[in-house]
Amino acid sequence: MTGLNIPALKNHLTERRERLQETVKYVPDPVKLYGLLQQVDSALERIDNGSYGICNVCHDPIEEDRLLVDPLTTVCLDHLDHHQRKALEQDLEFAIKIQRNLLPENNLKVNGWEFSYNYSPAGPVSGDFCDFIKLEDGSVLFALGDVSGKGISASLMMSHLHALIRSLLSFNLPVNEIVTRANRLFCESTVSTHYATMVFGKASQTGDVEICIAGHNPPLVINNGKIASLNATGIPVGLFCHSEYELINFKLQKDDSLILYTDGLTEASFNEIEYGEERLKKQLLKSGARSTQNIINDLIDDQKSFLKDSPRFDDITISILKRI
Ligand SMILES: [Zn+2]
Questions:
Q1: pLDDT tens for residues 206-222?
Q2: Main-chain phi, psi angles of 316, to 5 degrees
Q3: What global pTM score does this model have?
Q4: 233 near 245, Cβ under 8 Å?
Q5: Which of 81, 179, 293, 315 has the fewest CB atoms nearer than 10 Å to its CB?
């Protein structure tokens, strides 16, 4: 779900061009900068004559997520030269490492809660994120989200949003206030084409749960053997700077659980039929009182058998928090 805003891009490039020209005055050997300046001028020219975003070699459109990351790109992925390809591979390796480092420890038991997750990018990197944080007062914070778009640009935005949320934790704010501020900061700092749906919440030692759902597909609660979905309490983060987020409160008893997932799980389809929320609910009830890790494994097996091993196009993240 990307989309290039050409007038905005033009402003952006023009602004950078001015800054670059300023810099040229202060650099003792500006030859390299002239090369860059030429690239910017040529991009602006392509915008004006309508050939922007078209590969120099094959004249097919260049991948939009790559243009978003580097507006000066002039060739599609298939037509990178050796050095460009090497650089891209290194970026990708780096992005993969950053993502791996952001993931929480898996299969944890903390203060009456059991927590497991599964994080499966469709490609090398994912726009999904997932977190689980123990607080000093004995409660835990959990987050799961999905940044729009795919590839490196989505994964970088995901890292950025994740870091924003982490840095807001030190202020000891209420759950919905953290989402409100993360939204504002994310809005102010991203290219306007990126937004994210997310679930963020807190589970206390007593079994009380507070949750905030920013335009995300419905989390499920299994309470006393019955399953229910929770509706969104606000819009996705990154859409509009001033959004309010409501809280949902409930209490979980022993063996109750909360299931969070990204739409890659339910929207994956075979012969144009989606896996869907109903089948997900049935499968969860079937897994019953198994451990969170086993419930997740059951889900993944069930989705695989539904899809009959047809290729997957979207990232999938599932996390389960269970009262033990
Ligand atoms: Zn090409």
A1: 999 999 999 999 999 99
A2: -125, 130
A3: 0.81
A4: yes
A5: 81
